Amino acid sequence: MNCRKRSVLYLLRKRNRSVILWLILFIITTLMLTCITIGQGADGAMQRLFQAMGGYFKIETDDKPGLNKYVDDEFINHIMDSYEIREFNGMDTVYFMTRDMDLLPGRFTQEQDEKAKLARIMGNTDTGLNEYFILQSLLLSEGRHITAEDSYKALISQELAEENGLSVGDTVSLSYYDEDAGRDWQAFEIVGIFQIKSRQNSYTSNTAECDMVENFIFVDTQSVRDMIGWTLEREIDSYRSGALFFVDQPQALERIVSDLAEQSERGMEGYQVVKNNKQYQESRLPLERLKSLTMLIIAIIILLGFIIVSLILLLWMRERVHETGIYLSVGIRKASILMQHMMENLILAFLAFVLSCILVAGTMPRLEKAVLAVMDEGAWSQADESGPLTERDMAQAEMESDIEITMELNPVTILQIGILELGVVILATGISSVTILKMKPKNILSTMS
Fold first, then answer.
1. H or E, element range at 239
2. Residues 41-82: pLDDT tens digits?
3. Is the dihedral of CA 410, 411, 412, 414 positive or negative?
4. DSSP readout, 9-63?
5. What is the pLDDT of residues 347-362, one digit of tens each?
6. What are phi and psi of 151, to 5 degrees?
7. Which of 86, 87, 161, 179 is nearest to 124 (CA)?
Protein backbone atom coordinates (compact mmCIF):
# COMPACT_ATOMS: atom_id res chain seq x y z
CA MET A 1 0.00 0.00 0.00
CA ASN A 2 1.55 3.31 -1.03
CA CYS A 3 1.79 6.38 1.21
CA ARG A 4 -0.95 8.24 -0.65
CA LYS A 5 -3.53 5.56 0.04
CA ARG A 6 -2.36 5.24 3.65
CA SER A 7 -2.79 9.01 4.08
CA VAL A 8 -6.40 8.99 2.85
CA LEU A 9 -7.30 5.98 5.00
CA TYR A 10 -5.77 7.60 8.10
CA LEU A 11 -7.72 10.85 7.55
CA LEU A 12 -10.97 8.88 7.14
CA ARG A 13 -10.25 6.77 10.20
CA LYS A 14 -9.34 9.76 12.39
CA ARG A 15 -12.20 12.03 11.34
CA ASN A 16 -12.29 14.10 14.52
CA ARG A 17 -8.59 14.89 14.36
CA SER A 18 -8.81 15.64 10.66
CA VAL A 19 -11.67 18.11 11.18
CA ILE A 20 -9.84 19.84 14.03
CA LEU A 21 -6.62 20.25 12.06
CA TRP A 22 -8.53 21.32 8.94
CA LEU A 23 -10.45 23.95 10.93
CA ILE A 24 -7.22 25.36 12.39
CA LEU A 25 -5.59 25.55 8.95
CA PHE A 26 -8.76 27.10 7.50
CA ILE A 27 -8.81 29.87 10.13
CA ILE A 28 -5.08 30.56 9.68
CA THR A 29 -5.38 30.69 5.89
CA THR A 30 -8.47 32.89 5.94
CA LEU A 31 -6.84 35.39 8.31
CA MET A 32 -3.66 35.53 6.21
CA LEU A 33 -5.61 35.97 2.97
CA THR A 34 -7.73 38.72 4.50
CA CYS A 35 -4.78 40.62 5.98
CA ILE A 36 -2.54 40.45 2.93
CA THR A 37 -5.45 41.52 0.70
CA ILE A 38 -6.13 44.53 2.94
CA GLY A 39 -2.41 45.37 2.94
CA GLN A 40 -2.20 45.22 -0.84
CA GLY A 41 -5.37 47.30 -1.13
CA ALA A 42 -3.84 49.97 1.12
CA ASP A 43 -0.64 49.93 -0.93
CA GLY A 44 -2.59 50.37 -4.16
CA ALA A 45 -4.61 53.19 -2.60
CA MET A 46 -1.38 54.97 -1.63
CA GLN A 47 -0.15 54.74 -5.21
CA ARG A 48 -3.41 56.18 -6.56
CA LEU A 49 -3.38 58.86 -3.88
CA PHE A 50 0.17 59.81 -4.83
CA GLN A 51 -0.73 60.12 -8.50
CA ALA A 52 -3.86 62.15 -7.71
CA MET A 53 -2.45 64.67 -5.26
CA GLY A 54 1.11 64.09 -4.19
CA GLY A 55 3.21 63.08 -7.16
CA TYR A 56 4.58 66.43 -8.17
CA PHE A 57 7.29 68.98 -7.54
CA LYS A 58 7.47 72.65 -8.39
CA ILE A 59 10.25 74.62 -10.08
CA GLU A 60 9.93 78.37 -9.65
CA THR A 61 12.00 81.51 -9.94
CA ASP A 62 14.49 82.16 -7.16
CA ASP A 63 13.67 85.43 -5.42
CA LYS A 64 17.29 86.26 -4.61
CA PRO A 65 18.48 89.54 -6.19
CA GLY A 66 20.09 89.05 -9.59
CA LEU A 67 18.89 85.45 -9.93
CA ASN A 68 15.28 85.97 -11.01
CA LYS A 69 15.20 83.77 -14.10
CA TYR A 70 11.81 82.62 -15.33
CA VAL A 71 11.05 78.99 -16.08
CA ASP A 72 10.89 79.06 -19.88
CA ASP A 73 9.87 76.57 -22.56
CA GLU A 74 13.43 75.45 -23.19
CA PHE A 75 13.94 74.56 -19.57
CA ILE A 76 10.57 72.79 -19.45
CA ASN A 77 11.55 70.64 -22.46
CA HIS A 78 14.88 69.82 -20.80
CA ILE A 79 13.13 68.56 -17.66
CA MET A 80 10.58 66.56 -19.66
CA ASP A 81 13.30 64.90 -21.76
CA SER A 82 15.68 64.21 -18.86
CA TYR A 83 13.32 62.58 -16.37
CA GLU A 84 10.32 60.26 -16.35
CA ILE A 85 7.77 63.06 -16.03
CA ARG A 86 4.13 62.14 -16.65
CA GLU A 87 2.87 65.67 -17.35
CA PHE A 88 3.42 69.27 -16.33
CA ASN A 89 1.49 72.46 -15.73
CA GLY A 90 3.07 75.84 -16.43
CA MET A 91 1.62 78.69 -14.35
CA ASP A 92 1.36 82.47 -14.52
CA THR A 93 -0.15 84.84 -11.99
CA VAL A 94 -1.03 88.24 -13.50
CA TYR A 95 -3.71 90.89 -13.04
CA PHE A 96 -6.31 91.77 -15.67
CA MET A 97 -9.00 94.43 -15.63
CA THR A 98 -12.60 93.37 -16.28
CA ARG A 99 -14.95 95.50 -18.35
CA ASP A 100 -18.40 93.94 -18.54
CA MET A 101 -18.17 91.88 -15.35
CA ASP A 102 -18.38 93.07 -11.73
CA LEU A 103 -16.21 91.38 -9.12
CA LEU A 104 -17.51 90.52 -5.69
CA PRO A 105 -17.01 93.70 -3.64
CA GLY A 106 -13.99 94.26 -1.42
CA ARG A 107 -11.80 97.12 -0.21
CA PHE A 108 -11.46 98.92 -3.54
CA THR A 109 -15.23 98.92 -4.05
CA GLN A 110 -15.65 100.76 -0.77
CA GLU A 111 -12.94 103.24 -1.80
CA GLN A 112 -14.50 103.63 -5.27
CA ASP A 113 -11.13 102.80 -6.83
CA GLU A 114 -10.87 101.47 -10.39
CA LYS A 115 -8.98 98.48 -8.95
CA ALA A 116 -12.38 97.17 -7.87
CA LYS A 117 -12.38 95.75 -11.43
CA LEU A 118 -8.90 94.21 -11.06
CA ALA A 119 -8.96 90.40 -11.00
CA ARG A 120 -6.21 87.91 -10.29
CA ILE A 121 -5.64 85.85 -13.42
CA MET A 122 -4.25 82.33 -13.04
CA GLY A 123 -2.67 81.23 -16.32
CA ASN A 124 -2.30 77.45 -16.70
CA THR A 125 -1.22 74.93 -19.26
CA ASP A 126 -3.86 72.62 -17.76
CA THR A 127 -6.17 73.95 -15.05
CA GLY A 128 -6.93 70.40 -13.91
CA LEU A 129 -3.32 70.22 -12.73
CA ASN A 130 -3.46 73.44 -10.74
CA GLU A 131 -2.85 72.96 -7.01
CA TYR A 132 -6.22 74.47 -6.11
CA PHE A 133 -7.94 71.65 -8.00
CA ILE A 134 -5.45 68.91 -7.12
CA LEU A 135 -5.90 69.55 -3.40
CA GLN A 136 -9.65 69.93 -3.93
CA SER A 137 -9.87 73.44 -2.53
CA LEU A 138 -11.76 74.17 -5.75
CA LEU A 139 -14.02 71.75 -7.61
CA LEU A 140 -15.19 72.01 -11.22
CA SER A 141 -18.99 72.10 -11.08
CA GLU A 142 -19.88 72.89 -14.70
CA GLY A 143 -18.17 72.66 -18.07
CA ARG A 144 -14.60 71.46 -18.48
CA HIS A 145 -11.01 72.29 -17.61
CA ILE A 146 -8.71 74.38 -19.79
CA THR A 147 -6.03 72.43 -21.69
CA ALA A 148 -2.84 73.28 -23.57
CA GLU A 149 -4.77 73.43 -26.88
CA ASP A 150 -7.11 76.18 -25.67
CA SER A 151 -6.82 79.87 -26.46
CA TYR A 152 -8.77 82.69 -24.80
CA LYS A 153 -10.76 80.39 -22.55
CA ALA A 154 -11.65 81.04 -18.91
CA LEU A 155 -12.89 79.38 -15.70
CA ILE A 156 -14.79 81.53 -13.20
CA SER A 157 -16.30 80.85 -9.78
CA GLN A 158 -19.93 79.95 -9.21
CA GLU A 159 -20.35 83.10 -7.09
CA LEU A 160 -18.92 85.33 -9.82
CA ALA A 161 -21.12 83.68 -12.43
CA GLU A 162 -24.26 84.21 -10.33
CA GLU A 163 -23.29 87.82 -9.57
CA ASN A 164 -23.09 88.63 -13.30
CA GLY A 165 -25.65 86.19 -14.69
CA LEU A 166 -23.00 84.25 -16.63
CA SER A 167 -22.90 80.62 -17.68
CA VAL A 168 -20.75 78.25 -19.71
CA GLY A 169 -20.47 79.53 -23.29
CA ASP A 170 -20.72 83.23 -22.42
CA THR A 171 -17.80 85.61 -22.93
CA VAL A 172 -16.10 88.22 -20.73
CA SER A 173 -13.75 91.04 -21.72
CA LEU A 174 -10.35 91.27 -20.02
CA SER A 175 -7.34 93.53 -20.40
CA TYR A 176 -3.80 93.25 -19.05
CA TYR A 177 -3.33 95.75 -16.21
CA ASP A 178 -0.57 98.22 -16.92
CA GLU A 179 -0.87 101.77 -15.65
CA ASP A 180 1.36 103.06 -18.45
CA ALA A 181 -0.40 101.26 -21.29
CA GLY A 182 -3.79 101.67 -22.88
CA ARG A 183 -6.59 99.13 -22.59
CA ASP A 184 -6.55 96.33 -25.14
CA TRP A 185 -9.69 94.29 -24.41
CA GLN A 186 -9.93 90.65 -25.41
CA ALA A 187 -12.95 88.35 -25.25
CA PHE A 188 -12.60 85.13 -23.23
CA GLU A 189 -15.08 82.31 -23.56
CA ILE A 190 -16.21 80.74 -20.26
CA VAL A 191 -15.68 76.98 -20.62
CA GLY A 192 -16.07 76.01 -16.96
CA ILE A 193 -17.40 77.14 -13.58
CA PHE A 194 -15.85 76.06 -10.28
CA GLN A 195 -17.15 75.99 -6.74
CA ILE A 196 -15.12 76.69 -3.61
CA LYS A 197 -14.84 73.71 -1.28
CA SER A 198 -12.50 75.19 1.33
CA ARG A 199 -10.79 78.50 2.01
CA GLN A 200 -7.50 78.98 3.80
CA ASN A 201 -8.37 82.39 5.30
CA SER A 202 -11.48 84.43 6.05
CA TYR A 203 -12.00 87.82 4.48
CA THR A 204 -11.98 91.18 6.25
CA SER A 205 -13.17 94.62 5.21
CA ASN A 206 -9.60 95.31 4.09
CA THR A 207 -9.45 92.39 1.67
CA ALA A 208 -8.88 93.48 -1.93
CA GLU A 209 -11.11 92.11 -4.68
CA CYS A 210 -8.15 90.45 -6.42
CA ASP A 211 -7.33 88.49 -3.23
CA MET A 212 -10.76 86.89 -2.97
CA VAL A 213 -10.95 83.36 -4.33
CA GLU A 214 -14.43 84.06 -5.72
CA ASN A 215 -12.83 86.63 -8.05
CA PHE A 216 -10.03 84.38 -9.31
CA ILE A 217 -10.17 83.75 -13.05
CA PHE A 218 -8.30 80.81 -14.57
CA VAL A 219 -7.25 81.19 -18.21
CA ASP A 220 -5.02 79.44 -20.75
CA THR A 221 -1.29 80.09 -21.11
CA GLN A 222 -1.43 81.30 -24.70
CA SER A 223 -3.78 84.18 -24.00
CA VAL A 224 -1.64 85.39 -21.08
CA ARG A 225 1.47 85.34 -23.26
CA ASP A 226 -0.27 87.14 -26.12
CA MET A 227 -1.68 89.94 -24.00
CA ILE A 228 1.48 90.53 -21.98
CA GLY A 229 3.58 90.32 -25.15
CA TRP A 230 1.48 92.95 -26.91
CA THR A 231 1.82 95.31 -23.95
CA LEU A 232 5.57 94.77 -23.47
CA GLU A 233 6.16 94.51 -27.22
CA ARG A 234 8.17 91.33 -27.00
CA GLU A 235 7.59 87.60 -27.25
CA ILE A 236 6.87 85.77 -23.99
CA ASP A 237 8.12 82.19 -23.62
CA SER A 238 8.28 81.74 -19.85
CA TYR A 239 6.03 81.02 -16.87
CA ARG A 240 6.02 83.71 -14.19
CA SER A 241 4.86 81.37 -11.44
CA GLY A 242 6.95 78.37 -12.42
CA ALA A 243 5.72 74.90 -13.31
CA LEU A 244 4.49 71.73 -11.63
CA PHE A 245 5.93 68.40 -12.79
CA PHE A 246 4.04 65.18 -12.09
CA VAL A 247 5.55 61.72 -11.62
CA ASP A 248 4.01 58.30 -10.94
CA GLN A 249 6.18 56.89 -8.16
CA PRO A 250 7.27 58.35 -4.77
CA GLN A 251 10.78 56.98 -5.35
CA ALA A 252 11.04 58.84 -8.65
CA LEU A 253 9.94 62.08 -6.98
CA GLU A 254 12.67 61.83 -4.32
CA ARG A 255 15.34 60.97 -6.89
CA ILE A 256 14.43 63.73 -9.36
CA VAL A 257 14.20 66.43 -6.70
CA SER A 258 17.56 65.35 -5.24
CA ASP A 259 19.18 65.39 -8.67
CA LEU A 260 17.80 68.85 -9.49
CA ALA A 261 19.03 70.15 -6.13
CA GLU A 262 22.53 68.92 -6.97
CA GLN A 263 22.35 70.62 -10.37
CA SER A 264 21.35 73.84 -8.64
CA GLU A 265 24.49 73.68 -6.55
CA ARG A 266 26.56 73.10 -9.69
CA GLY A 267 25.25 76.14 -11.52
CA MET A 268 21.50 76.03 -12.01
CA GLU A 269 21.18 79.33 -10.15
CA GLY A 270 18.00 81.27 -10.61
CA TYR A 271 15.61 78.38 -9.95
CA GLN A 272 14.43 76.67 -6.82
CA VAL A 273 12.87 73.23 -6.55
CA VAL A 274 10.07 72.64 -4.07
CA LYS A 275 8.70 69.19 -3.30
CA ASN A 276 4.97 69.63 -2.75
CA ASN A 277 3.89 66.33 -1.20
CA LYS A 278 3.06 67.38 2.35
CA GLN A 279 -0.65 66.89 1.73
CA TYR A 280 0.06 63.43 0.33
CA GLN A 281 2.24 62.54 3.33
CA GLU A 282 -0.53 63.57 5.71
CA SER A 283 -3.33 61.86 3.80
CA ARG A 284 -1.47 58.58 3.40
CA LEU A 285 -0.90 58.14 7.15
CA PRO A 286 -4.08 56.07 7.75
CA LEU A 287 -3.20 53.88 4.76
CA GLU A 288 0.38 53.49 5.97
CA ARG A 289 -0.84 52.52 9.45
CA LEU A 290 -3.31 50.06 7.95
CA LYS A 291 -0.64 48.42 5.81
CA SER A 292 1.84 48.18 8.71
CA LEU A 293 -0.83 46.73 10.98
CA THR A 294 -1.81 44.06 8.48
CA MET A 295 1.83 43.06 7.94
CA LEU A 296 2.30 42.76 11.71
CA ILE A 297 -0.85 40.68 12.04
CA ILE A 298 0.30 38.37 9.22
CA ALA A 299 3.63 37.81 10.98
CA ILE A 300 1.84 37.03 14.26
CA ILE A 301 -0.60 34.67 12.52
CA ILE A 302 2.23 32.78 10.82
CA LEU A 303 4.17 32.45 14.06
CA LEU A 304 1.19 31.43 16.20
CA GLY A 305 -0.15 29.16 13.48
CA PHE A 306 3.20 27.38 13.22
CA ILE A 307 3.41 26.94 17.00
CA ILE A 308 -0.18 25.69 17.34
CA VAL A 309 0.02 23.24 14.44
CA SER A 310 3.41 21.96 15.62
CA LEU A 311 2.19 21.37 19.18
CA ILE A 312 -0.99 19.61 18.05
CA LEU A 313 0.90 17.36 15.63
CA LEU A 314 3.55 16.68 18.26
CA LEU A 315 0.91 15.56 20.78
CA TRP A 316 -0.86 13.41 18.24
CA MET A 317 2.39 11.94 16.97
CA ARG A 318 3.14 10.41 20.37
CA GLU A 319 0.00 8.32 19.95
CA ARG A 320 1.25 7.03 16.58
CA VAL A 321 4.22 5.13 17.95
CA HIS A 322 2.37 1.84 17.59
CA GLU A 323 1.41 2.63 14.01
CA THR A 324 4.99 3.63 13.16
CA GLY A 325 6.36 0.43 14.70
CA ILE A 326 4.04 -1.69 12.57
CA TYR A 327 5.09 0.15 9.42
CA LEU A 328 8.76 -0.40 10.22
CA SER A 329 8.21 -4.07 11.03
CA VAL A 330 6.69 -4.73 7.61
CA GLY A 331 9.61 -3.04 5.85
CA ILE A 332 8.23 0.46 5.16
CA ARG A 333 11.03 2.99 5.25
CA LYS A 334 11.10 6.05 7.47
CA ALA A 335 11.11 8.33 4.44
CA SER A 336 7.84 6.78 3.26
CA ILE A 337 6.31 7.22 6.72
CA LEU A 338 7.38 10.86 6.81
CA MET A 339 5.93 11.35 3.33
CA GLN A 340 2.64 9.89 4.56
CA HIS A 341 2.50 12.36 7.44
CA MET A 342 3.28 15.20 5.06
CA MET A 343 0.60 14.12 2.61
CA GLU A 344 -2.05 13.83 5.32
CA ASN A 345 -1.50 17.40 6.45
CA LEU A 346 -1.05 18.77 2.93
CA ILE A 347 -4.41 17.31 1.87
CA LEU A 348 -6.11 19.07 4.76
CA ALA A 349 -4.17 22.27 4.04
CA PHE A 350 -5.21 22.18 0.38
CA LEU A 351 -8.88 21.76 1.25
CA ALA A 352 -8.66 24.57 3.80
CA PHE A 353 -6.86 26.78 1.28
CA VAL A 354 -9.46 26.29 -1.47
CA LEU A 355 -12.39 26.99 0.83
CA SER A 356 -10.61 30.05 2.29
CA CYS A 357 -10.07 31.52 -1.18
CA ILE A 358 -13.74 31.05 -2.04
CA LEU A 359 -14.87 32.59 1.26
CA VAL A 360 -12.54 35.61 1.11
CA ALA A 361 -13.33 36.30 -2.56
CA GLY A 362 -17.06 36.22 -1.78
CA THR A 363 -16.81 38.59 1.18
CA MET A 364 -14.44 41.08 -0.49
CA PRO A 365 -17.08 43.81 -1.13
CA ARG A 366 -18.21 43.72 2.51
CA LEU A 367 -14.60 43.76 3.65
CA GLU A 368 -13.93 46.91 1.59
CA LYS A 369 -16.91 48.68 3.15
CA ALA A 370 -15.87 47.65 6.66
CA VAL A 371 -12.29 48.89 6.22
CA LEU A 372 -13.45 52.20 4.69
CA ALA A 373 -15.95 52.69 7.52
CA VAL A 374 -13.21 52.22 10.12
CA MET A 375 -10.89 54.63 8.26
CA ASP A 376 -13.64 57.26 7.91
CA GLU A 377 -14.38 57.11 11.62
CA GLY A 378 -10.68 57.29 12.43
CA ALA A 379 -10.09 60.28 10.15
CA TRP A 380 -12.83 62.36 11.75
CA SER A 381 -12.12 61.26 15.33
CA GLN A 382 -8.45 62.12 14.88
CA ALA A 383 -9.41 65.58 13.64
CA ASP A 384 -11.77 66.03 16.61
CA GLU A 385 -9.07 65.10 19.13
CA SER A 386 -6.71 67.74 17.74
CA GLY A 387 -8.96 70.58 18.90
CA PRO A 388 -11.37 72.93 17.11
CA LEU A 389 -11.76 72.06 13.45
CA THR A 390 -10.56 74.55 10.87
CA GLU A 391 -11.66 74.42 7.23
CA ARG A 392 -8.29 72.96 6.32
CA ASP A 393 -8.75 70.21 8.93
CA MET A 394 -12.20 69.41 7.60
CA ALA A 395 -10.92 69.35 4.01
CA GLN A 396 -8.12 67.03 5.14
CA ALA A 397 -10.55 64.70 6.92
CA GLU A 398 -12.88 64.68 3.90
CA MET A 399 -9.98 63.89 1.60
CA GLU A 400 -9.00 60.93 3.78
CA SER A 401 -12.60 59.75 3.84
CA ASP A 402 -12.70 59.90 0.02
CA ILE A 403 -9.81 57.43 -0.27
CA GLU A 404 -10.84 54.38 -2.26
CA ILE A 405 -9.40 51.00 -1.32
CA THR A 406 -9.86 48.36 -3.98
CA MET A 407 -9.37 44.82 -2.73
CA GLU A 408 -9.11 41.82 -4.98
CA LEU A 409 -7.87 38.30 -4.59
CA ASN A 410 -5.33 38.18 -7.39
CA PRO A 411 -3.15 35.21 -8.42
CA VAL A 412 -0.06 36.75 -6.80
CA THR A 413 -1.79 36.93 -3.42
CA ILE A 414 -3.04 33.36 -3.73
CA LEU A 415 0.46 32.16 -4.64
CA GLN A 416 2.04 34.03 -1.72
CA ILE A 417 -0.38 32.61 0.84
CA GLY A 418 -0.12 29.15 -0.69
CA ILE A 419 3.66 29.17 -0.34
CA LEU A 420 3.44 30.46 3.25
CA GLU A 421 0.92 27.80 4.24
CA LEU A 422 2.93 25.09 2.49
CA GLY A 423 6.03 26.13 4.41
CA VAL A 424 4.20 26.17 7.76
CA VAL A 425 2.67 22.73 7.22
CA ILE A 426 5.88 21.09 5.99
CA LEU A 427 8.01 22.54 8.77
CA ALA A 428 5.47 21.73 11.51
CA THR A 429 5.05 18.18 10.21
CA GLY A 430 8.79 17.65 10.01
CA ILE A 431 9.34 18.86 13.57
CA SER A 432 6.52 16.72 14.97
CA SER A 433 7.60 13.58 13.07
CA VAL A 434 11.29 13.75 13.83
CA THR A 435 10.77 12.79 17.49
CA ILE A 436 9.56 9.33 16.44
CA LEU A 437 11.44 8.82 13.19
CA LYS A 438 14.79 9.41 14.88
CA MET A 439 14.09 6.43 17.19
CA LYS A 440 15.53 3.04 16.28
CA PRO A 441 13.10 0.26 15.34
CA LYS A 442 13.97 -1.86 18.39
CA ASN A 443 13.30 1.10 20.68
CA ILE A 444 9.94 1.68 19.05
CA LEU A 445 9.07 -2.04 19.45
CA SER A 446 10.17 -2.04 23.10
CA THR A 447 7.98 1.04 23.68
CA MET A 448 5.06 -0.78 22.08
CA SER A 449 5.55 -3.77 24.38
1. strand 238-239
2. 777 776 666 666 557 888 887 766 555 567 889 889 988 998
3. positive
4. HHHHHTHHHHHHHHHHHHHHHHHHHHHHHHHHHHHHHHHHHIIIIISEEEEEE--
5. 999 999 999 888 888 8
6. -145, 130
7. 87
